[in-house]
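Acetylornithine deacetylase
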Amino acid sequence: MMKTFPDIKQSFRELIATPSISALEAELDMSNQGVVTLLSQWLTDLGFDCQMQAVPDTRGKHNLLAKIGQGRGGLLLAGHTDTVPFDEGRWSQDPFTLTEKDNRWYGLGSCDMKGFFALVIEAVRQMPTQDFVRPLYILASADEETTMNGAKAFAQSKAIAPEYALIGEPTGLKPVYMHKGHLAQGIRITGRSGHSSDPAKGLNAIEIMHQVIGQLLKLKQHLAEHYREEAFSVPYPTMNFGHIHGGDAANRICGCCDLHLDIRPLPGLPLEVLEQLLTQYLAELSQRYPGSISISQLYPGSQPFAGQADAQWSQLVAQLSNQAPEVVNYATEAPYIQQLGCQTLVWGPGSIEQAHQPDEYLDTAYINKTVDLLKQLIYHACIKAP
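Predicted structure tokens:
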């Protein structure tokens, strides 16, 4: 019996209508079960073998791995099923309803990045999957927007060993072969409060934080001088002081001060090394004020990623897309997918400028173009003789 599949627009509509917000705050966090169930149904009907995998250290989230074709190597098309929270009252329409206007498809996840799965499914639907001599895998991961625990767990499982991988983040169909990482740390100074008329009876947390910031600025300079990659528009690791708060009154010695900072390391500077440098630069102050300085992780970081612009896969995707390989400053799941041993690129429709914004949209000019390019890439990886 012939199976009927939703067309691209209907697939977009159903995926967008299925909320899958990922947030660190429990009250905002949602399951991605509805999205992976939809994808599993559609892909099973196309002949894929689908497996849902619970992701540890999440609130009931799941990865979905789908496979069609036999043999070694092949291609992995990867993406995340979650979205960021939306700004209440700032959208012009319901974020969970696909709205077509001015050659754009609006909706939460249309661009970043549930829509990518609809385009992948349409591309596969048009292909002779019986001719695959190498497997095609589709990974739908959980919690990319927060912890990246889905991709991290999948990489650790080593369940597959594709030769090539594409992560369908919105890059304007430009192949991205390198990006920075992300580390977000909190530093808390715990002093002793007291009356401002006798400073010696307290320990002013703001004054200690002033010294801490001085050391952090030295670390910032060290990073800029010792780590450099000219391919980036900002060719050195950056450090940003994003939040500071301390004290409650002018006539009280400040007993507590908090600083939140963001560091974006280059490839070649793993997060573990960066954390060690942070501790090292504050070690002398920690000895001077024992027990007063604590460093904590605000949320899980993301490693930097580096592939090769001149690799076979990079050059093929660049040639077919008519776009030169490039680097970006934001972070993705690429460093974890790369751990599978595959040539990995970030490549997908839409612009990162629309991601995480009210009235997120995908320009409809990308739809047929992406489907056609996906068909060519799948053909090269899964059908064409090596």
